[in-house]
Amino acid sequence: MHPVIMILCTGLDLGLVGNKVLSKQPQRFFMLQVTNQLLWFSHMNVSNELKNDPLIYAAGLESPIGVYVRREIFKKNAKSDSSLKKRLYDQTVAGQSADGSWNQLFVPTANNLWNLALLGCEAENKHVRKGLDWLLSIQKFDYRGHPGFFISPNRRDPSLMRSTFYGEFGPGCSIFYYTTYAVHLFHVFGLDDNKQVQTTVRSYLDFWKPTWCGAWCTINVLRMLIEHPLSAESRQVKSGLEHLAKLQTKTGAWKGFPFYHTFHALSRARNILAEKQLKKAFPFVIRRQNKDGSWGRKEQETETFLVLDAMKNVELI
Asked: Nearest 10 degrees: CA dihedral of 259, 263, 266, 271?
């Protein structure tokens, strides 16, 4: 088994109580245990395959994504990143409302919690705790008789969701976006054992099929099911991967699906169906790289993160 990579939010106000850890084995996007690695990944040298060095682009990012990518993917701990991390942290928590949200809006609350995770904050951090508590406070909706769904009380959130392409989740149906993103954040902070979150996952396992809704909803839900221990090896995940396999074209892309989000979501799956699709998609990734080492057009930072973190997940970089 490969070593587990653990990130701590050193130098920031974590709100720790002694050395207590809320979850014995947190599972998160920057804590990786690879137990079943496909051989073709082991023998590939990405530095020889990529057209341009992605570090050239990543070195200039003054953002939570930039801090994470330099530290965890390229293992570059620049002295300037320490002060940058503190500045980004201070800016992020300064906007948090007394109830734990960011302006009583789901989208900025979820994105800022993800930013805190990228900066290395743990679940014990007081701002993280308050934010997660606020998320649980909006878990009030039963979807067609299935409990545990999150719904935003703010009418501005749907338009924000549709106009904000940031992070690992994209603009599908509002309730599926809120719910899958919220469950993901509890996963990121090592809280998969939260009973309310487990209720949500079980509800999805009761009714979800990969053809239930559109492409964004499908990949958002499948990503969440791939990550959570209750669903990672479920028949729903298998059917979702089979559905995507049928849609993958000769180019490696998935017809009708957002390429970078799909590529990244599959990199979390420990399943031969996902691994075969990743192998087929990798040449497409190489072809789509920009001259500055990034990926994507309108959302270069997010899409570059999705590619590099996916490569990290399967140990290509």
From this structure: 110
- The share of the chain scoring above pLDDT 90, in percent, equals 80
Tens of pLDDT, residue by residue over 107-160, are: 999 999 999 999 999 999 999 999 999 999 999 999 999 999 999 989 999 999
Q: What is the mean pLDDT of residues 4-32?
A: 37
Domains assigned to the chain: 39-313 (1.50.10.20)
Q: What count of other Cβ atoms lies within 10 Å of the Cβ of residue 283?
A: 12
**CA-based end-to-end distance of the chain:** 18
Q: Are 154 and 102 in contact (CB under 8 A)?
A: no
Q: Are 144 and 189 in contact (CB under 8 A)?
A: no
What's the pLDDT score for residue 41?
52
Which conformational region is residue 190 in: left (phi greater than 0), alpha (psi within -120 to 50 degrees), or beta?
A: left
Distance CA 317, CA 311 (A): 6
CB 186 within 8 A of CB 132: yes
Q: CA angle 157-141-151, nearest 5°?
A: 10
**Listed residue (246, 185, 235) closest to 208, CA to CA:** 235
